[in-house]
Amino acid sequence: MRRLALFVAFFVASLATVGIALRGASLAYAGESIQQADLQRFYQEINSESFDGKLPDVPVRWSDLTDTDAYGITRFDHGVPYAMELDRQTVHSKSFAMDVIRHESCHIATNAEAKRRKEDPHGATFVSCMARILETDTAD
User: Fold this and answer.
1) What residues of the chain score a pLDDT lower than 70?
2) 110 part of a folded domain
3) Would you say 9 and 133 are in contact if contact means Cβ atoms under 8 Å apart?
4) Is residue 19 part of a domain?
5) Amino acid 3: pLDDT
6) What is the pLDDT of residues 51-81, one digit of tens each?
7) Which CATH number belongs to the domain containing residue 105 in this structure?
8) Tell me, what's the pLDDT at 7?
9) Which of 47, 62, 89, 134 could make an S-S bridge to 55, C-beta 3.0–4.6 Å?
10) Which sign does the torsion angle of CA 132, 133, 135, 136 carry?
């Protein structure tokens, strides 16, 4: 379990490093054009492949998250997810968008259980979800 937590911490740190690099290199960005519809399709793909389609249908959209210093955020109302937002300023590639959507999907999948256990949103329940997704993703 300790190795798993360390692996997920490394993964999250890697995402942060990539995001900082992308933010600083935005002028050099060659440009994959990711459309709004692509984000929704990516979420549906991740939901199907990693969660057996059990996550609720949540709209995924671009947003300006500069003030939150986040690559993505999932909005909840009384524990029910109603929107997933990705930062247009920092998420520039399909692979990065997929990583952020996987991360946010784990928040959707673990939110109720993490609250029940009084865990941090990025605590053990979340870490376990991310590890399972990464394991599934690398097995393919």
Assistant:
1) 1-32, 137-140
2) yes
3) no
4) no
5) 53
6) 999 999 999 999 999 999 999 999 999 999 9
7) 3.40.390
8) 53
9) 47
10) positive
The DSSP code for 123 is S
Counts of helices then strands in the chain (DSSP H, E) = 4, 3
Query: If you search the block for the tokens 């329940």, which residue do you land on?
Result: 125
Q: Convert the pLDDT of each residue in 82-92 to its tens digit.
A: 999 999 999 99
- The number of folded domains in the chain is 1
Q: Which domain covers residue 128, as residue numbers?
A: 2-9+33-139
Structure tokens at 14: 């890697």
pTM confidence score: 0.77
Is residue 72 domain-resident? yes
Contacts of 111 (CB under 8 A, 6+ apart): 76, 79, 81, 121
Cα radius of gyration rounded to whole Å, the chain: 15
In a domain, 101, yes or no: yes
Contact 40, 101 (CB under 8 A): no
